[in-house]
């Protein structure tokens, strides 16, 4: 019932804010169409710009950074990507990935209100970037505070609170933009560029502002790196150590707001959250250590912003924000596939390696149990493929594959006559070790887990392949009184040899 009521509230809020906006937008479209259709047909024919590729000369000018505006845009977006990558790691570990989305959407009414206030005080100066960013920052912080209040003082969960605040603030901002368009000065506002971003409009003063904010963000992140580490991994432990958890969380949220605000003009409020999350998520595929993750995320964020701005410089009709995010998505795909820690190929390789190790263990233990029942001179005895197939209920093709791999590892040698083989000294030593570990674990389960001897073999077989050296040493200490270290315990259950 609680989840249903939350969903219903969310839907109602969307309806309340979307219906009047749609009506107003439809009226604007219809009136503009009626008033402008005749004039368009009278004065000029409708033309559509053709899509053209950039020339070699233009490509070289962009790559060599000959144009001043290109250098300004690349430097500004690079700083933004660098800071977003660093702050995004802490947000990802705090499981607040969508908080940047809330800040971005909540900043829209702040931009609109700041424009109205500045235009009312000083007509013609409503588009001052510093004032608009101040309004965006205040509204973004207000959105974060509202989310915290809803989560703390109501029974609504954080994801529902994020959705509610995001929708309400963005709906309010869209309504204010519609009102601004009706004002005398609204036609020249151009505030819609903050929604999807327009990095081409960056000037030197804008980049200076981005550089100052980026420097502050980097400095705070470096000075409070240890504190943020404790906050992200164990908030309760950080509180017991006397760290001001609430104050640290407030600083972290302020960094998110700062990065989001400086990214509004270049990336846009709809896509800035992707610049916060994609580099951080990509770094998880390469490392588990926080310092390395932060460095990798910063590199991916900076490279995404730098390389994503180049296509926009070559093709002006491409949005810079979208190309930056697409480049970040490309890096994410590379990390997903080739990441050395959690990449798909790395996990597949580990799976094959683990499967090969498990098969080798099962083969050697089966060989030892067969030889144990035949003779004490295991190294001179011969085992046939049919014996292994009957003992382990394996397919003959799998047995031959395991034997081939074991022969490559010099654990056994093929007998010159027929499908027979025998263990080498190295293979026999490994087989004894595997059989000993398996039986020690069986005895431990029988004594301490109260598992019947008839069922313990399967339970031990599922666990023995993941036992590390520390657990094996503990098992030896537990059972060394009854079974000396060099003696292999007898199996607690009957071993089938056929």
TrEMBL record:
Every Iron dependent repressor metal binding and dimerisation domain range: 424-480
Membrane spanning residue stretches: 72-93, 98-117, 129-153, 160-180, 207-225, 237-256, 262-281, 293-311, 317-340
Location, primary (coarse class): membrane
The organism of origin for this protein: hydrothermal vent metagenome
Similarity comment: family membership: Belongs to the ABC-3 integral membrane protein family.
Entry keywords, A to Z: Cell membrane, Membrane, Transmembrane, Transmembrane helix, Transport
InterPro entries from the UniProt entry: ABC_BtuC-like, ABC_TroCD, Fe_dep_repressor, Fe_dep_repressor_sf, Iron_dep_repressor, WH-like_DNA-bd_sf
Keyword Cell membrane: yes
Any GO BP annotation: transmembrane transport
Pfam families: ABC-3 (PF00950), Fe_dep_repr_C (PF02742)
Gene3D superfamilies: ABC transporter involved in vitamin B12 uptake, BtuC, Winged helix-like DNA-binding domain superfamily/Winged helix DNA-binding domain
Subcellular location: Cell membrane
Membrane topology reported for the UniProt record: Multi-pass membrane protein
GO terms of molecular function: DNA-binding transcription factor activity; protein dimerization activity; transition metal ion binding
GO cellular component annotations of the record: ATP-binding cassette (ABC) transporter complex
The protein, known as: Manganese ABC transporter, inner membrane permease protein SitC
């Amino acid at each position: 019932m609680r989840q249903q009521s939350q969903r219903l509230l969310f839907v109602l809020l969307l309806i309340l804010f979307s219906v009047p906006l749609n009506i107003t937008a439809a009226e604007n479209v219809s009136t503009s169409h009626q008033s402008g259709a005749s004039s368009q047909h009278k004065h000029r024919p409708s033309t559509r710009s053709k899509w053209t590729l950039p020339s070699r000369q233009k490509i070289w000018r962009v790559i060599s950074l000959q144009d001043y505006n290109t250098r300004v845009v690349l430097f500004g977006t690079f700083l933004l990507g660098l800071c977003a990558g660093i702050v995004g790691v802490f947000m990802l570990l705090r499981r607040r990935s969508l908080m940047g989305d809330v800040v971005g959407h909540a900043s829209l009414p702040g931009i609109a209100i700041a424009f109205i206030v500045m235009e009312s005080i000083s007509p013609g100066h409503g588009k001052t970037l510093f004032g608009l960013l101040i309004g965006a920052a205040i509204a973004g912080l207000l959105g974060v505070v509202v989310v915290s209040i809803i989560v703390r003082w109501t029974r609504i969960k954080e994801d529902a609170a994020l959705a509610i605040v995001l929708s309400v603030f963005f709906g309010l901002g869209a309504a204010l933009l519609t009102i601004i368009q009706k004002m005398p000065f609204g036609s020249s506002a151009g505030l819609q560029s903050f929604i999807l971003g327009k990095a081409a409009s960056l000037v030197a003063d804008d980049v200076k502002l981005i550089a100052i904010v980026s420097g502050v963000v980097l400095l705070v992140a470096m000075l409070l790196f240890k504190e943020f580490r404790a906050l992200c991994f164990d908030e309760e432990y950080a509180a017991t150590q006397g760290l001001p958890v609430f104050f640290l969380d407030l600083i972290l949220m302020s960094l998110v707001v700062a990065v989001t605000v400086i990214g509004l003009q270049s990336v846009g409020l709809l896509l800035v959250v992707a610049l916060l999350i994609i580099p951080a998520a990509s770094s998880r595929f390469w490392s588990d250590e926080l310092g390395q993750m932060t460095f990798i995320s910063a590199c991916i964020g900076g490279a995404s912003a730098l390389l994503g701005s180049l296509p926009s410089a070559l093709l002006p009709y491409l949005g810079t924000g979208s190309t930056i995010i697409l480049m970040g998505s490309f890096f994410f795909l590379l990390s997903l596939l080739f990441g050395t820690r959690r990449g798909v190929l790395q996990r597949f390789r580990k799976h094959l390696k683990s499967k090969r190790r498990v098969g080798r263990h099962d083969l050697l233990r089966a060989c030892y149990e067969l030889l144990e029942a035949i003779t004490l001179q295991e190294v001179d005895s011969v085992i046939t493929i049919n014996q292994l197939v009957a003992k382990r209920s394996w397919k003959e093709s799998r047995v031959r594959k395991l034997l081939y791999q074991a022969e490559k590892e010099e654990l056994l040698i093929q007998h010159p006559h027929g499908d027979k083989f025998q263990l080498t000294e190295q293979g026999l030593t490994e087989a004894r070790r595997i059989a000993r570990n398996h039986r020690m674990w069986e005895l431990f389960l029988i004594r301490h887990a109260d598992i019947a001897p008839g069922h313990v073999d399967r339970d031990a077989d599922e666990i023995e392949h993941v036992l590390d050296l520390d657990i094996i040493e503990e098992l030896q200490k537990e059972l060394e009184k009854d079974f000396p270290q060099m003696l292999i315990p007898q199996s607690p259950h009957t071993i089938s040899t056929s």
